[in-house]
Design brief:
It is a single chain. The chain contains 16 helices and twelve strands. With 448 residues, it is an alpha/beta fold. The longest helix is centred in the middle third of the chain and has 19 residues. It starts with 8 loop residues before the first helix and ends with a helix. The chain binds 2-acetamido-2-deoxy-beta-D-glucopyranose (NAG) (3 copies). The site of one 2-acetamido-2-deoxy-beta-D-glucopyranose has 8 residues, from strand 8. It comes from Vicugna pacos.
Length: 448
């Protein structure tokens, strides 16, 4: 067989296997180059990715890092929500985003686990049911990506994440570290950043009561009720009854909602919208998993985003199968992970730290679902030998505008662990505090 000189052999293999290989659209330089495609990560499991080359007026993309963004849920779409609602070049009205991360990094959005966003499965057995599968699927994708895009092999590669994406980023980071050491994936892996991440769900749940009470969102009776249900979740987690813990977690959220007049889990200074309250009463007849899905994934695929992705975007991308709809399989993605939700991955973070991988934890001050108190609680459980030294450090304030005295964040970092307390942000840090999120990304990737 003859290979054309500039054809990537892995690309050819994909072609031979009859798999989608993506499209390359070259645009005028100032708009930047984007590429996207599918990788079949397992039988019947097809994962969609979308890459934007950094667009910086002074620097070539090769001088800037590559950042992969992982959305939460599980079932939330990076190519949709993270891209158009948080850090990508355009917002969901297709207007340029002032605080896009593209000015300081190339961005790789991946719809994972399979079934999320434009990713799809051809068989309901192919959904991931645990973190190990999520991570091994991503290894297949990253190997295909770096083998075919050698220009990124030497560039520092960071995995940034949000919510459940943080749990996936930890698992993926550890597998990637091993793969790089073993030489199976060629890339310059530089670290993970875990944003409002679901590393130790129970530490979030047990801190909801004290957190809400301290900011006047629970009275004494409310605190007692929230604490009581949190104890039940804790008990189930301690017994290893993870599916039951998932069910009780959903119940705990309802107790919080009832006692707080419907506080928004993603930003305590706002309220759940009346529509979602109506949805909730309707959902009462549905299974607790569907209810949890409505609460935690539905908001990541609001109608405007869904119309954009299933309208102009799929038209532009051209390679989305006709009967594959953005978000169409996300309920199943979420439901299949039922036994995984409440499992902690603190030990994986420990392994990352021991292995010398740079780990950044960042959290929005106004987030309830993954509140900062809970993050600090699991951090204290780390067995990492440098933790006492990290704890002894004092934090430093950060300002987004050097001329302003308004504090935007606090940061503490020691050796390969850093923690950012992001002020006035809820769960979606880049949506709430775009300037600070961009600054943090630059700090984490050693550009400031
Ligand atoms: C940018 O970097 C790439 C990869 O190193 C190189 O091929 C390309 O020529 C560079 N472009 C410019 C404008 O310097
Ligand atoms: C797999 O699913 C996609 C998307 O729904 C569909 O277009 C394709 O025909 C399916 N392939 C097979 C072999 O069933
Ligand atoms: C990892 O963190 C250490 C300590 O903060 C820092 O010196 C180093 O540059 C970081 N490496 C990368 C690749 O970001």
């Amino acid at each position: 067989m003859e290979l054309a000189p500039r054809t990537c052999p892995e690309l050819l293999l994909l072609l031979l296997l009859g798999l989608s290989t993506g499209a390359v659209i070259d645009r005028p330089a100032e708009e930047g180059k984007e590429i996207w495609g599918y990788v079949t990560v397992r039988k019947d499991a097809h994962m969609f990715w979308w890459l934007y080359y950094a667009t910086n007026p002074c620097k070539n993309f090769s001088e800037l890092p590559l950042v992969m963004w992982l959305q939460g849920g599980p079932g939330g779409s990076s190519t949709g929500f993270g891209n158009f609602k948080e850090i990508g070049p355009l917002d969901s009205d297709l207007k340029p985003r002032r605080t896009t991360w593209l000015q300081a990094a190339s961005l790789l959005f991946v719809d994972n686990p399979v079934g999320t966003g434009f990713s799809y499965v051809n068989n309901s057995d192919a959904y991931a049911k645990d973190l190990a599968t999520v991570a091994s699927d991503m290894m297949v994708l990253l190997k295909a990506f770096f083998d075919c895009h050698k220009e990124f092999q030497m560039i520092p590669f960071y995995v940034f994440s949000e919510s459940y994406g943080g749990k996936m980023a930890a698992g993926i980071g550890l597998e990637l570290h091993k793969a790089v050491q073993q030489g199976t994936i060629q890339c310059n892996f530089a670290g993970v950043a875990l944003g409002d991440s679901w590393i130790s769900p129970i530490d979030s749940v047990v801190s909801w009561g004290p957190y809400l009470y301290s900011v006047s969102l629970l009275d004494d009776q409310g605190l007692a009720e929230v604490s009581e249900i949190a104890e039940q979740v804790l008990d189930a987690v301690n017994k290893g009854l993870y599916k039951e813990a998932t069910m009780l977690w959903g119940k705990a959220e309802m107790v919080v909602e009832k006692n707080t007049d419907g506080v928004n889990f993603y930003n305590i200074l706002t309220k759940s919208t009346p529509e979602s309250a109506a949805e909730l009463s309707f959902e009462f007849t549905q299974s607790h998993l569907v209810r949890l899905f409505q609460r935690h994934v539905r908001h990541l695929q609001e109608d405007d985003l869904s119309q954009l992705m299933n309208g102009p975007i799929r038209k532009k991308l051209k390679i989305i199968p006709e009967d594959c709809f953005w978000g169409g399989q996300s309920t199943s993605v979420f439901q299949n992970m039922e036994g995984d939700f409440m499992k902690p991955v603190v030990s994986i973070v420990d392994e990352l730290l021991e292995a010398g991988v740079n780990v950044t934890v960042y959290n929005g001050q106004l987030d309830l679902i993954v509140d900062t108190m809970g993050q600090e609680a699991w951090l204290r459980k780390l067995k990492w030998t440098e933790l006492p030294k990290f704890n002894q450090l004092r934090w430093k304030p950060l300002y987004t505008d050097p001329k302003s005295s308004e504090t935007s964040a606090f940061v503490k970092s020691y050796k390969n662990l850093a923690f950012y307390w992001i002020l006035r942000a809820g769960h979606m840090v880049p949506s709430d505090q775009g300037d600070m999120a961009l600054k943090m990304m630059r700090l984490v990737t050693r550009q400031e």
